[in-house]
Amino acid sequence: MKKHWYDYLWIFSVVYLLLGFFNILFAWLGLLCFLIPLFMALFGGKKAYCNRYCGRGQLFGLLGGRFGLSSRRDIPSFLRSPWFRYGFLAFFMTMFVLMLVNTYFVFSGAQNLREIVTLLWTFQLSWHWAYHGTAFAPWIAQFAFGFYSVMLTSTVLGLFTMLLFKPRSWCVYCPMGTMTQLICRVKYHSQQAPSQEEDA
Amino acid sequence: MNIQDWNFDFASLPSWPNEQDSDSVCHELYEHPSSDLACIIYSIIENTMCKHVGCLAILQKKEKPVLYLAIRSFLVPQHQISFSSSGSQIFLQTHIDDEFLKTSSYSESFRQHARPLLVLDVAQNRFAYIRTHAYNPCYSIKEVTPHTFSVVLNDPQTSNQPLIDFSKKTIDLRTLEWFPVEEIESLSAKYFGRPLDQSAATKSKPPEIKQELSGSEHKRPKKKAKVQRAFCVSCGVCLATCPTKAISMFLGIHAHIDAARCVGCGKCALACPASVIKMREVAP
Question: Would you call A175 an interface residue with chain B, using a CB distance cutoff of 8 Å?
Fold first, then answer.
């Protein structure tokens, strides 16, 4: 099959993660991975981002598939249950809001900038080498640290389940995937799906 | 060679690619130099695992063509076709890129299965596999006697390697283990021996083929993929794996499989990260 330009978006994911090691302000680029799928889902693109443009999914597919790092086992059924997926989305959004609150505290001066990347919402890694002082306000750097934590955490989780289960098992509980699917469900709730010969 | 030369409605072939998909498919016709036979490989698709799947059709009679044999989902990583000079045997060989073998996580299974030399004996309605053990068998087949064919290596780069596992590099058709044609996986029995021009072809249809098929048509249970829609995460991994493009995403909510296009290969079920696609037997 002819390769399209969007088949190489995994490079963007790799470059993004690497840039965060050199200058944390590049973390702002990650907002693209949040806003593009949201806008696509809201304005008629449905889940085209997941289906075609998600660089992270491609990266997992590449590492697990072509490089054979994945054990290709079935994912445990609780991980794909709506309870877990929506629960993880809620948890993820809560942590996201907390990150925004932190950013606001730095913005208002109630808190100082902390040059820390928090992995898996628990482990605080000193990340001072990627912060060189800035022409921007400290809250901009605080948001970058917080956002990079989110991106790094989800990558580590995704890599972990990629090793244990199918290559793209991150997609099963990816909060963005769940959220965009939810948007599509709400938006097209009146549409009747084409029938399947028998329900599996 | 041009498929337009054959007076044949190619779009009627199973899984014939439609025009919109033309960037990811190709079709090639191999015509026998002396007899009225043609072999088409079409709908070759590379999915995410870099495998190529093709459909194979054998046609007879250029003027009033009969679709002699149509096989879906024939694994053709790269393809080279040789015809015998007698006209009743067709040799089909596959050719796999070395680089691909090194990078593919499926290289072991490819080593075991992917490089057969397929011999179709269209006169007797049977086929045989000849296993080769080289990575890149590039050879041509030449008839020596009516039953014996010699294998000539074409690739000078790899000629110092033991390319083919034939002791004398000849194929004696009488010594091969032959199988009846309907044993081929995914054979579309519906199309077997079907005349294209309905008015003219009853005469040209070989009667023994019809006989052979009548008993075996319902032998093999057909499988189709089914989605457990409630648990589908609509990630779209399956979309890229489907060799016949039978899967679409219903409004970003769940995958939908067009049962008419599904050939039951099971690639989507293997790839699905949520394991919500199951292969189910369906009534033939």
Answer: no
